[in-house]
Amino acid sequence: MLKRLFELLGLATMGVGLYLVFSEQSKNSACNATEGKFVGAGMSASCQHVVDAYFGGFVLLAVGLLVVLFGLLATRKAAKRRLTTKHSLASQYHWDDPKTGRTPPS
After folding, report:
1. pTM over 0.85
2. Best CA proximity match to 48, nearest among 68, 23, 24
């Protein structure tokens, strides 16, 4: 149950990240067009708030993806563990006669 909750939280985080990326993309391209291209990694102070939200969207998207991925891996591991058959302890030990190598007659 807790794994499913984390998967839903990861999906919600990815949704918020996608919303931020797509909503800030038009503002980012408009800011780049009006401010011009800077040489190197510089940017103007008026474009800084747009870039912060844009970067935050990518971070939320990546974190949400990791949470969903780990949740799915944990669910898969738990499902594999449920499918394996557990043998009883008595079936693991067979008594063989040391001389003949056969089980004794019953």
Report:
1. no
2. 24
